[in-house]
Design a protein that fits this description.
5 helices; two-stranded antiparallel ribbon; 59% helix
Length: 185
């Protein structure tokens, strides 16, 4: 299949199942955001010197491809999917979060990002992950989300990415800096 099909030249894109929608439709906006996230995770994986982090990021990248196909499915024919995110993947992220929190014992409060290159990339990925989560929540509200585990997964993912950034800083012997004042919501 060629890279350039020219089918999107008029501002429409095809969903899994054949339906065509405007490129600004909530589905392509959402899975496009997760593609952006996947790109940042690839940059983080290429930058990290810690094998454990690289392996975790590689697994997450694979999960994001599964989520992307689920979000691109236009109809109810779930047989078109090669996989689905399940409680198993959500639990995996939950365990990672618990393990890294136990190891890091992060201080409460906001931090200023940018202590190392790799932690900065992971912090950008976390922010993109949160945007993806908000879009998936919107899909759920509009009854466009067939698999509620995706929302749970993305909620856990942002926590794990935050903790991986702090783990990278710890391994670089850098402490996160806190703002000179704390903002409370």
């Amino acid at each position: 299949m060629p890279i350039s099909t020219k089918k999107g030249d008029k501002g429409f894109t095809g969903l899994l199942g054949g339906r065509r929608v405007p490129k600004y439709h909530l589905r392509p906006e959402t899975y496009g955001t997760l593609d952006e996230l996947n790109s940042f995770l690839g940059m983080a994986r290429a930058t990290s010197k810690i094998r454990k982090v690289r392996n975790i990021l590689f697994t997450i990248q694979n999960h994001l491809f599964v989520i992307g196909s689920e979000l691109a499915l236009s109809g109810g024919d779930r047989n078109l999917l090669k996989g689905e995110i399940s409680q198993k993947e959500v639990d995996w992220l939950s365990r990672l979060s618990t393990d890294f929190e136990t190891l890091l014992k992060p201080e409460p409060g906001f931090i200023i990002y940018g202590e190392t290159q790799i932690s900065s990339i992971l912090d950008v990925a976390r922010a993109v992950s949160r945007r993806g989560e908000r879009l998936v929540a919107k899909m759920k509200l509009k009854k466009m989300l067939h698999n509620p585990k995706i929302l749970e997964y993305l909620n856990r993912l942002s926590d794990v990415l935050y903790l991986l950034a702090r783990y990278e800083e710890k391994k670089a012997h850098v402490k996160p800096k806190h703002p000179s004042y704390q903002v409370f919501f």
